[in-house]
Amino acid sequence: MEPWILKKESKCFNCSQNTTQIIEIYPNQAFVKCSNCGATRYYIIKNTYIDDENIIESEKDKKMLYENWLLEKDAECYNCGKYYTQDILITIAGMYVRCRNCGFTRSYRFSMIDTGGTK
Fold first, then answer.
1. Exposure letters 54-69 (e unless 16+ CB within 10 A, then b)
2. Residue 103 predicted with pLDDT over 70
C-alpha cells in the first residue's frame, strides 16, 4: 500500500524555521519530517474504529504546545472502499485520519522524536 504524502508549511519544533513539514501516513504508522533540519516525529497506530461522534471535531480546537494541523486528502477509504475525503488531524500527542463517508477512523499516538542531529 502506498503511503499518503502531504505537506504543510509550519514552524519546526526543532529548528524553529517556518518551512515545509512532510507528512507520510501509512496504515500502521505516520511521520512528520522537517524539510529543513530533518527532525522527525513518529506516530504509531493505536486503534481503528467507526467514529459516530467525529473525534476530529472534538479535538481540533484543543490548545496544545504546538498548533494543531487540520488537513484533507481525497483517497479510497480502507473500510468502505469509496473514494472520499479523509480528514486528518495532527497534534503533538497524536494523529487521526477519518473518512467523511463512513466514519472509519485510524488513531495514532505519538511515539518518539528524532531531532536529526541538530537543535
1. ebbeebeeeeeeeebb
2. yes
The Cα 71–Cα 89 span in angstroms is 6
Instruction: For residue 119, name the pLDDT band (cuts at 50, 70, 90).
Output: very low
Alpha carbon 65 to chain centroid, angstroms: 16
Q: So where are the chain's domains?
A: 4-114
- Cα end-to-end distance, the chain, whole Å: 34
Q: Closest Cα to residue 116, out of 5, 12, 44?
A: 12
Helices (H), ranges, 36-94:
55-59
- Cα(98)–Cα(94) distance, rounded to whole angstroms? 13
Q: Which residue has the cell 519530517?
A: 33
* pTM for the predicted model, two decimal places: 0.89
CB atoms within 10 A of CB 9: 9
